[in-house]
Amino acid sequence: MSTYRLKNLLSPHSVALVGASPRHGSVGRAILNNIRKAQFKGEFGLVNPRYHEIDGVATVGSIARVAFAPELVVLTAPARAIAGLIDEAGRRGTAGAVIVSAGLGHGPGSLADAAERAAQKYGMRLIGPNCLGIMMPCVSLNASFSAHMPAAGNLALISQSGAIAAGMVDWAAQRAVGFSGIVSIGDQLDVDIADLLDYFALDERTHAILLYIEAIKDARKFMSAARAAARIKPVVVVKSGRMAQGARAAATHTGALAGADAVYDAAFQRAGILRVSDLRELFDCAETLGRLKSPPGKRLAILTNGGGIGVLAIDRLVELGGAPADISPATRDKLDAVLPPTWSKSNPVDIVGDSDPARYAAALEVLLADASNDAVLVMNVQTAIARADDIAAAVIGVVGKYRAERRMSPKPVLAVWVGADQSISDLLSGAGIPNYQTGGDAVLGFMHLVRHREVVEALAQVPPAMPSEFAPDINAARQIVAAALADGRSWLDPIEVKRLLDAYEIAVVPTFAAANAEEAVAHANAIFAQGSTVVLKIMSRDIVHKSDVGGVVLNLTSADAVRKATAEILARARSLRPEARISGVMVQAMVVRAKARELILGLADDPTFGTVVVFGRGGTAVEIINDKALALPPLDLQLARSLIERTRVSRLLCAYRDVPAVKPDAVATVLVKLAQMAADIPEIRGLDINPLLADEAGVLAVDARVVIGRVERKFRGSGPANFAVRPYPSQWQRHIEVKDGWRVFVRPIRPEDEPLIHEMLKHVTMQDLRLRFFAPMKEFSHEFIARLTQLDYARAMAFVAIDEATNKLVGVVRIHSDSIYESGEYAILLRSDLKGRGLGWTLMQMIIEYAKSEGLKAISGDVLAENTVMLAMCRSLGFEVKSDPVEHDICNVKLTL
């Protein structure tokens, strides 16, 4: 697993600092001071061969001479010494190292490469190099050179920038916000963002995870970890480089639209990560997520003594997609009883400028009891009539009483005290009430909570590998692309493009190729006979945008006009692009659909995230209009609808004035088909359909271009080589017969299997649960089961076995790969009353088959020594069984594949 040994690094019982210096201002001295100041409770040793002691702390000359075997070593030594120190630590049994030192370089033959190879010999994990270090308040460890140590709390921060991490600590100190952990990852030689997402997702002390990202190294691993974490708790990201332009010119419109930052946006959206624009918004988001849980809806009630600020907050709420809560008649009557007659009678609940603490308290109690809202924002403008701190104290009292009464699911309460002293902010923060400088900031914080609930719901949906609505002719499509590649081409010609789209049942304008004017006239006459006029377009592999050379002539009505236009098009193209290979013209029927919308749909290839699906407003000015949205495939209809809804042109797809609505799901279906095409034919490196005409009758592709190239496998493991998100692996569905004719259906697990898991666990004995989980398990929370059911199949797989007669779940087997995708750890659980019927053997064989198909080199697991049945099955399957050298009641089992 990618969390392998991370607990040893982030919650160690013993630490050695290597390279500390007595010189003030040095990194080693700063880290030594921080470790001592934080009062780390475990064993601590100092290594420096040049000194006997540093600042009163005795040193030793080498890691080998430390009086204990350190779980974690913190390295600040010169870069050239790092690999040797890691090797020395590995021989002592050290679990991992934080490499603060910089200058190790990159790539084969570098000092970093030597350090990594040394660590792999001993299974050590590495954080860094070139990082600030780690701060883990839960174990009183500050192994960093940050100026301050954060308080303990429930936020985790993973940062690619040491400066950002240090800044977050300073901000948190001012707002009474604490952290479960802060990790500066530096160059990510080993431990990366995905590993830490896995770790903090499972960390009970962490309620929300904050990320500062500059670039992603392994997109599939990141997407897998982010999707898993976001299902359990909020994940918020700030990504730098928003305005950076793509490094290479795009060959297609979709390629131009799919800029690097837009693709990151799409990736974060698909992963369920909340993206914020800057550090201030990250701080505000942390303020909210660190203190509150997501509400069931998006209805916000606002309580204020200033009508103007309340209305501004309502405006911002509506702008962000929230809903002002209604004031029900019953609630209005209750507010009438405790407020003066001049109160606003609506939301925002303006309780008038002379409000005192008692009036605030009474109104807040009524709003908290009202089922018509999902959260309450309390706002205060200071006046000379009542002290702002007294009002804050009254609000805190009401909220505290309410939370005590509604311990399981209290509504979120947020606060804004306009222009208030820091002392009031401290009061509110100390009571766990997130507070903000403006109403707009508070509303944004509330909407972050709403968005988190929405993304968790969206993540529970699993797109199928193959949509059931259509059956494309995959073989025909692959042959078209393979033939073009064999011909040394990087573009399909227009006839090939039409055949490709036909294979995927995407309607295209009839298209004919003509090498000269006479062939063009012959095709045109057939079109004229059907009552249509003709369009001519230049046909050249080297001229991508036909209009740039005057290569399109519309609405031709006679053979002579076609003959003349063909000659002119060819002459213009040869004059303007003499180097281009020109093979003639395309002849198409002129399509007149007066009320159709012009759209662009396509595929683009991103160097980090692989294939991206693009949708937006079409036409020749698509880059200038820039109304587009992106999504990572695979897609289903719901994901395709969501992609469309993120554009302005989506509003035009509805009916307006005398224009009928576009045929329902016609556009979304084409997007799903394109995503499927990208999965089936990864050699498609770019695709434009521009324009796609859409109206009440359906959709029609008028023009399309396809770029092709050899497959570049971007991601490890099986599945589409060009997808950062793996589709649901339906190819692993099996109908299996075990002993005595018992038939079971085995398939990859889905999020909606949670109720089936709960039901199955009722039929598992306490003894079998202890053998599986190594501890007595009396109850299973939603969060616990969610971790088991909500996979995205990139690094983990679980197969469920369902009794075909009863439709009940009877067994589960799972495997999770390690961080370098070489071996996987397995686990299996069966219903206790159905053991001994061959199901366990069958599921183990299936997970072994799956591991082989993924290219894993080994399967391993830990089995209690008393679990003799499992150990016997492992031996029969060829596993090597050894006693664990530390935990003597555990056996380590391993199968080399």
Present the secondary structure layout:
Blueprint (H helix, E strand, L loop, with lengths): L5 H5 L3 E5 L8 H12 L4 E5 L5 E2 L2 E2 L13 E4 L6 H10 L4 E4 L11 H12 L2 E3 L5 E4 L4 E4 L7 E8 L2 H14 L3 E6 L8 H9 L6 E6 L5 H14 L2 E5 L13 H5 L2 H12 L2 E3 L2 H11 L9 E6 L2 H13 L3 E2 L4 H10 L10 E2 L6 H13 L5 E7 L6 H18 L7 E6 L3 H9 L4 E2 L2 H21 L14 H13 L7 H10 L7 E4 L2 H13 L4 E7 L11 E5 L2 H18 L5 E8 L7 E10 L3 E8 L4 H4 L2 E4 L5 H9 L20 H15 L3 E12 L2 E4 L2 E5 L25 E4 L5 E6 L5 H8 L4 H8 L8 H8 L6 E8 L5 E9 L5 E8 L8 H15 L4 E7 L3 H9 L3 E4 L6 E7 L1
Total beta-strand segments = 38
Radius of gyration: 32 Å
Biggest sheet, strands in spatial order? 31-32-33-34-35-36-38-37
- Total count of helical runs of at least 4 residues: 28
**Major sheet characteristics:** 8 strands, mixed
Helix content: 25-40%
What sort of overall outline do the alpha carbons produce when their principal axes are compared?
A: globular
Measured distance between first and last alpha carbons: 18 Å
Low-confidence runs of at least 5 consecutive residues: 245-249
Structural class: alpha/beta
Which percent range describes the beta-strand content?
Answer: 15-25%
Mean pLDDT: 88
